[in-house]
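Hypothesis: this fold can be encoded by more than one sequence.
Test: take the structure tokens below, design a sequence, compare later.
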């Protein structure tokens, strides 16, 4: 499972750094490509020479190479990886990661990393149990990261307790299991709509909405990472899709999104309709910029756009799965369930605008999933990435 997998191994300043040498050996033996990024404190515990010899790659620690002054791109590195593993992760690094304190190469790489992140804490028992550390760990967990719990035993401080970094063999097995699960959507073709639509009024104006596209892009990344071929039909957003298995089609209006979706759907095994499609567009759009001309009032005549979800729902064939979103402000469950039925969706993801941190323009979301069987599952507030995992898990259950 680890053959040809590209793994960034972050090493920080803990006595457990000696275990990183074994970790690299095991990963390399399994066919993984390992790039070590070490913090300055990490180098006090294990030498870069040991690590580069075992990983067969120069170790990265600084933003610039000391030898020739060339720049180490944390962005490229972050995008290169199939996984990032921080082992050992000290309380300080965990705190920096949880709060975006990007003052070293490891944390900047982490912030640029689109791949799944695994964190193996190692520290003294009291440091680990401290509410600050626990809150930081909870925060990292809410981003969808995998925390590899430390074990109990004798610690460097000679005290006994929970804080020992998990053994390298166990960490490697965990990664193997993770990558095995990442093939769950192999050979599936998934259509995703994301972002807002812009309905043109004249060459400089449009009717739009606040959708950022983040939820749809997170879904696309999650499906692609699990092996699916994704077609992402995106309205105007300022996001980029990184995964090579995502084919992106950029559209502007609801009509363009409809055309692209109708064309793609027959080949798809599932469609996740995340876009905030404008329900109406101006009846006519002016070729020239509309002048104010000192008018006190201005009337726009609107006409209804096609309902993409309902149209795909009508076309849906046996075995295809269709899911949509509902953003409601009143009587949420009833409205969402009605919407699901009307559009012939297999499940609908409800987010309420009344929930702080949920909905448009946030990095977090709080959802409930309502399915055809009438089952309602409510999830806690999570990052959109972690929410995407929950939604794709639900999708997978329908194929089992
Ligand atoms: N949707 C769509 N095409 C449209 C409108 C909505 O595909 N023209 C999809 C959205 O992507 C979402 C679901 O339908 O998955 C629900 O969208 P929403 O705007 O909440 O539904 P509407 O049918 O427009 O209902 P409302 O009256 O609440 O606006």
């Amino acid at each position: 499972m680890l053959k040809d997998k590209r793994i960034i191994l972050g090493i920080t300043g803990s006595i457990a750094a000696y275990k990183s040498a074994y970790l690299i050996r095991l990963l390399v033996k399994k066919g993984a490509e390992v790039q070590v990024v070490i913090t300055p404190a990490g180098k006090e515990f294990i030498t870069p020479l040991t690590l580069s010899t075992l990983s067969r790659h120069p170790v990265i620690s600084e933003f610039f190479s000391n030898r020739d002054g060339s720049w180490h791109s944390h962005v490229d590195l972050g995008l290169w990886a199939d996984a990032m593993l921080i082992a050992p992760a000290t309380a300080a690094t965990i705190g920096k990661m949880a709060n975006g304190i990007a003052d070293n190469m490891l944390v900047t790489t982490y912030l640029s990393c689109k791949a799944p992140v695994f964190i193996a804490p190692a520290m003294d028992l009291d440091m680990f149990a401290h509410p600050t550390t626990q809150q930081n760990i909870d925060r990292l967990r809410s981003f969808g990261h995998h925390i590899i719990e430390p074990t109990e035993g004798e610690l460097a401080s000679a005290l006994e307790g929970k804080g020992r970094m998990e053994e390298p063999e166990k960490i490697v097995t965990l990664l193997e299991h993770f990558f095995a699960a990442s093939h769950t959507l192999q050979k599936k073709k998934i259509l995703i709509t994301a972002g807002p639509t812009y309905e043109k009024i004249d060459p400089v104006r449009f009717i739009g909405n606040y959708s950022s596209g983040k939820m749809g892009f997170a879904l696309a990344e999650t499906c692609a990472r699990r092996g699916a071929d994704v077609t992402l039909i995106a309205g105007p957003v300022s996001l980029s899709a990184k995964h090579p298995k995502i084919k992106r089609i950029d559209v502007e209006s609801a009509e363009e999104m409809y055309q692209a979706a109708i064309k793609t759907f027959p080949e798809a095994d599932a469609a996740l309709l995340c876009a905030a499609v404008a329900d109406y567009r101006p009846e006519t759009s002016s070729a020239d910029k509309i002048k104010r001309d000192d008018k006190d009032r201005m009337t726009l005549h609107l006409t209804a756009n096609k309902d993409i979800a309902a149209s795909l729902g009508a076309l849906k064939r046996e075995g295809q799965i269709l899911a949509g979103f509902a953003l409601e402000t009143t009587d949420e469950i009833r409205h969402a369930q009605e919407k699901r039925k009307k559009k012939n969706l297999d499940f609908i993801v409800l987010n309420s605008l009344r929930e702080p941190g949920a909905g448009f323009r946030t990095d977090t979301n709080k959802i409930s999933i309502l399915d055809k069987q009438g089952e309602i599952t409510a999830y806690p507030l999570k990052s959109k990435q972690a929410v995407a995992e929950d939604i794709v898990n639900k999708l997978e259950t329908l194929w089992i």
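The domain at 6-181 is CATH 3.40.50.1950 (Rossmann fold). The first helix runs from residue 17 to 29.
Hypothesis status: open.
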